[in-house]
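User: I'm new to structure prediction. If I give you an amino acid sequence, what do you actually give back? Let's try with this one:
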Amino acid sequence: MALLELQDVALNFGGLKVLDGVSFSVEPGEVVGLIGPNGAGKTSAMNVITGMHRPKSGKIRFNGEEIQGLKAHKIAALGIRRTFQTSLLCPGLSVLENVMLGMEPVAGYGLGQASLGPQFILAREAVLRDRAMEMLEWMGMAQFSEREGQGLSFGQQRLVELARALASTPRLLMLDEPAVGLSPPRVTELAGNIRKIAKTFGTTIVLIEHVIQLVLNSCDRVIVMNAGKVIAQGLPEAVTADPKVVESYLGRGYYAES
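Assistant: Good question. You get back a string of structure tokens that encode the predicted 3D arrangement of the chain. For your 258 residues, that looks like this:
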């Protein structure tokens, strides 16, 4: 059974058709790239999956359960996490605190557990802190753990956001342009980390990305969107050779430059 399935999903903003009968599925453990030109509907598809927008019609299933129309926090509680195109680190908090903040759904205590006393809370926070540091080490950002998050470069902030999303052990991790602001060596490192995350944690990953090299180096499969529709999907090498994809997105000079 597919972990994520979209079936004929439509989304309108007024008279503008943003998603037009979008259908695709993602299998457990897959790394899937969602690519296409600006305005293709990629982020809108991610927004309806994560509950930021309610689709006009169609079905969205996660682990066999219909989730279209659920509130974002309800969807997150099912094990779906995402990052955004712009940095969303909390001002005034350290890098480590930002990562720990993303672990609230798996903190393991509420008012009832808090009544057990400060020693219980401190012990649990120590576990969360260790987990946050582990994720920062994965992203090569552990040395910045005590720095204020918003004092880092944009590319560094993106890596912290990825560590924060991963820290809560999601079943499905959705990344919106994770390579923005990263240097070429960092992009190569990120591709390796994405593969390592999927293999080590069994995390299913969907990423929106314009850096085609990252897609080719990290994705098992690619879905291409244009004008609110899926126009191609398959293995990365096959999809990037598809004439429709070259024409609508990559451009005729893609292979000459590759």
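You can read the tokens as a compact description of the fold. Here is one thing that stands out. The chain has two domains: 4-79+170-257, 91-163.
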